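Today's session is about reading a structure prediction critically. Students often jump straight to the picture, but the first step is always the sequence itself: look for stretches that repeat, for charged clusters, for runs of hydrophobic residues. Only then move on to the predicted structure, which in these notes is written as discrete structure tokens rather than atom positions. Here is the chain we will use throughout the hour.
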Amino acid sequence: MSIMPMMHEVDPAEDLRKKIGDISGFNLIGPKVLCAIYIRPNKTKGGIIITEKTRDEDIYQGKTGLIVKMGVNVGVDADWFGDNKLEVGAWVGFRASDGYSLIVNGVHCRILEDVRIQCIASHPDLIW
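Below is the predicted structure for this chain, in token form.
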């Protein structure tokens, strides 16, 4: 798993999808993705308590997000993406400074150009 596996009371992807709600009226222009920022739970599986201040840093410095919306022609550059598929529901890693930070329906998000996605992970705790 990760360097610091977290204690999840609910599935983090389902939690973010529920929190962001209906975003059918939100559209991206060009090959961009909207990522809901992963904010760690307040406790690790080992029992370490994460302070609110530390968790708040995930909003600004977090490098993991869930793709919740995609623009047109995302991931079509075969030279760049190869066999990797960007899709809604994928956990991705990126540099925090590469995205445009905004709040959508009360959820902290980033808009990124598709080529700014650096990795795809099966679970957000894999990225630290």
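Discussion point for the tutorial: The chain has a mean pLDDT of 89.
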